[in-house]
Amino acid sequence: MVRASESGDGVEIMVCPGGPRLVRGARHVVDDEGQTFAVHRPVVAVCRCHKSTRLPWCDGTHKLLPPERTP
Amino acid sequence: MWLPLPRGPLSAEIIRRLRGSRDEPRVDVEAHHSADPVTDEDLQLALWVLYELHHRSFDGVDDRWEWDPSLLALRETIERRFETSLRERLEGQVRAAMDTTGDVATRLFALTGAFDGPAVAEHVQRRASREQIAELLVHKSIHQLKEADAYTWVVPRLVPEIKARLMELQLDEYGNGEPARAHQTLFAEALRGAGLDPTYGAYVNDVPAITLAGSNAVSMLGLHRRLRAAALGHLAAVESTSSVPCRRISAGIRRVGLGDEVAHFFDEHVEADAVHEQLAVRGICGALVAAEPGVDAEIMFGALVSLDLEARFGRRLLSAWSDGSQLTLRLDVSEAG
Asked: What is the pTM of this model?
């Protein structure tokens, strides 16, 4: 689980069925272990399948998983 | 960029006109027929030159040619053949995509997920030589150096809500206010890092019709308001078939010993396009269907144009490589890279 943080109002979070969580308007995201990642784009896709090679970010790997293992 | 070398009567006539004064008497190009416009060298180069007048054009060519009625009429004739061939070829697949259940996002993800394209990225990841990877960059340079631009033409044709969504995606394409992070700039750096020429249009004489056709399709969809839904469907398909292949290509680049400056463009696309596919499919295409009911089939057509032309390019490229050959026309990539 990753939460968006530290940008106050205006952060919008959308869960994509079978895919990542989109976070709009955040300056950082913080992962389960408390590590902080800076955000450099208007919207970021945060991995929900835990198989990404670029955690915490989505890298599209969820598409390669069998349907029962997609988030 | 200088005007390219002609490949037949159509492109020769256009290039001849562009070299001269706009006031000189015009000669009509005779009717030009080909079995498949997508692989017609003369037709695709002619169209590419005509579209380039709307992009950054050529050294020594009068800017007023962009809106010259005789060239626009010629362009329409060529475009009609190109678009008709794509519509006839993809008609059944558009219908099949429309027959799947779900909303436009579900249909688009189903279409791009199930599309059976050639395994170019897998080949690059595991087996391609350094020269083959350089060749892939040469082909990609035709479009990546103006990547995203044609979709920007769509913006004024949309309702404000979709404009905002599309511009959010485009902002990321153009580097979020930092020119060095713009995807076009990253691709120029990748070319430079591979020992290739990063100049805009440097390789237009070296790539075949199928490479030009992929770029021409985006320009065609972006320039015509009539085709705005297809343009956004094309965008959605490009974005949702990018992250995983780019990760593989990046791995292949590092496997053959090309550096981070070459791989960076692809690394950036792994992450950016995982976002962009969701924005394009759910946000932009989803909102377009809500704003303009009935455009679903056009969105699917645009998506299939992208998938089909990319697949046809990929099959030819892999076929050339499996013969120990290359798809570029004149360039010897073993010396260029």
From this structure: 0.93
